[in-house]
UniProtKB/TrEMBL annotation, chains A, B:
PROSITE patterns referenced in this protein's UniProt entry, alphabetically: DEHYDRATASE_SER_THR
Official protein name in the record: Threonine/serine dehydratase
Cofactor (UniProt): pyridoxal 5'-phosphate
Organism of derivation: Fuscibacter oryzae
Family: Belongs to the serine/threonine dehydratase family.
Domain of life: Bacteria
Domain Tryptophan synthase beta chain-like PALP as annotated: residue spans: 17-297
CDD domains: Thr-dehyd
Keyword annotations: Lyase, Pyridoxal phosphate
Matching Pfam families: PALP
Entry's Gene Ontology BP terms: isoleucine biosynthetic process; L-serine catabolic process; L-threonine catabolic process
A molecular function GO annotation: L-serine ammonia-lyase activity
InterPro entries: Ser/Thr_Dehydratase, Ser/Thr_deHydtase_PyrdxlP-BS, TrpB-like_PALP, TrpB-like_PALP_sf
């Protein structure tokens, strides 16, 4: 199968460059959940999210000539930082298109990872046209956040590690809950587990009101979110499941899970108290589902997919 | 050397039971520090601190008969939780003596790990006499927090892992900064590194006003702290270096480092932002020294020795 070859090749390129993040658990967290909960702590990955894997996979798959010309990505968040650091470590020029009203710390961090940040006016400029023009003029390769086979193959390395670490922990049967936006991480993990740990079933988790994937899986056709703003889980809010990712999810995943914003904040506070990791709201959706959903087996594995969170929002979670 | 045999035997007993915590670093943290900083994230250890290692080492070194009678420890903090979980996993009864005014969450957590918590009145009861009576009546073995060869040998496993992980990261020469209270962790790491990574020199870090170890190393005789209260770094405040630990520190460590409370809070916030780990004040002292001291080499490794922190204090660090 083509995708498995891509996954194995991406894993080989990532070896020694991405961090093998720990699969954490804690007796006191299991007590709260009433089940065994393992957390794949991708917030400890380079740049604070799994996005570094997809970025590295994509950049490392380019020809030397493509790399020398450089890459471009559209993102104000984790994808931007993941691609920026991956490109920098390959010596590839990197341009990131960000809205001018993005938080200053995200712009600063993306620049600190070595990218050239181009700001645009959300209200007055067409991002896609601007990006296409930049890419054409400079011969840049666009790295999409999830609808790219090399990006999905990179995120699949999370699944390969979960398969190994579950075996080390003696777990052969479990639901694996993923924080799901466009579906790159979910599709990648699902492909890896289908090949290496068939007893582990993937289920995407989403915030209430932004559950396009759950509804798409339930109805069999791709659904859209009514709005894209207003969620604290901004990192995983996308209009609709991806062209490439949705057929994979349909084939391999169980039903989606939906959590409330309050559950997400409580999950962040419990990860703070019992695992001592920093998880951002969009990265805590799967843990919230693991802790607070009723429709789950005795053992659950979930991704803590990112940890880039505004201190104010984190303090709000701690106070909740 | 007797201590190396103890260390190797403790490591063998810990294998598969303690967590091999990651050695983290981040490009943006290095920028702040102006040097390369690696962080041994013991906040990700079972019970949220390195103390689980010493507890496990001590409990697992007992005879079956001693284990069946049980263990006792005096602590309101990380040592209590480490010993409690280690004992529970050995099926050994565990009694923890805690002051009645200890934070409720610490008492609850220690009970949740399976220990019998005996509360005493700090003002009216003599803790040592009470503990001695309990130990004598029930045949319990006392596990001291640092002045115990098996506890030091257990903490030394942090040093064995640092030696391996530094090699993996290509680091052969560095200062290794430790959060230092009674000196169990510092002595253990120093013994392990002297044997396995002679290019790595240990230096204890302490909070301003509670720098008994730095002053003891500087003067060559054990100094005492003027007071034991009033520090946010309560986890590492002890009256004076240990009987067993100080001679080891004197033989193997470089000069101590002292940091301010404000630097500790800033280190906690930077670990939040760039490493996405939760570090308690006493566990952030070495990172604060790594980030803000001038008298350091190009590469520094430091322990983030614990992550059990009150949400209010953590929020204060984020707001600073």
């Amino acid at each position: 199968m083509a995708s498995l070859n891509l996954i194995n090749a991406a894993a080989a390129r990532l070896a020694g460059h991405s961090r093998r993040t720990p699969l954490l658990n804690a007796p006191l967290l299991d007590r709260v959940a009433g089940r065994r909960v393992f957390v794949k702590a991708e917030c400890l990955q380079w740049t604070g999210s799994f996005k570094f894997r997809g970025g590295w996979s994509a950049v490392s798959a380019l020809t030397p000539d493509q790399r020398a010309r450089g890459v471009i990505a559209f993102s104000s968040g984790n994808h931007a930082q993941g691609v920026a650091l991956a490109a920098a470590r390959h010596g590839a020029p990197c341009t990131i298109l960000m809205p001018a009203d993005a938080p200053g710390v995200k712009i600063d961090n993306t620049r600190a990872y070595g990218a050239t940040v181009v700001l645009y006016d959300r209200a007055r400029q067409d991002r896609d046209a601007l990006g296409a023009a930049l890419a054409a003029n400079h011969g840049l390769t666009l790295i999409r956040p999830y609808d790219d086979p090399q990006v999905i193959a990179g995120q699949a390395s999370v699944g390969l590690e979960i398969a190994e670490q579950a075996t080390e922990a003696g777990v052969t049967t479990a639901d694996v809950l993923t924080c799901c936006g466009g579906g790159g991480l979910t599709a990648g993990i699902a492909l890896a587990l289908a090949a290496h740990a068939p007893g582990l079933r993937v289920r995407p988790a989403e915030p209430e009101g932004f559950d396009d994937t759950a509804r798409s899986l339930a109805t069999g056709t791709r659904q859209r979110n009514a709005t894209l703003s207003g969620s604290i889980c901004d990192a995983i809010v996308t209009p609709t499941p991806g062209d490439l990712t949705f057929p994979i999810l349909q084939r391999l995943c169980g039903p989606g899970l939906v959590v409330t914003e309050d559950q997400v904040l409580r999950a962040m506070a419990l990860a703070f108290a019992h695992l001592r990791i920093v998880v951002e709201p969009g990265g805590a959706v799967a843990l919230a589902a693991a802790l607070f959903s009723s429709d789950l087996p005795e053992t659950v594995i979930c991704t803590a997919s990112g940890g880039n969170v505004d201190p104010g929002i984190f303090a709000r979670a701690l106070a909740a």
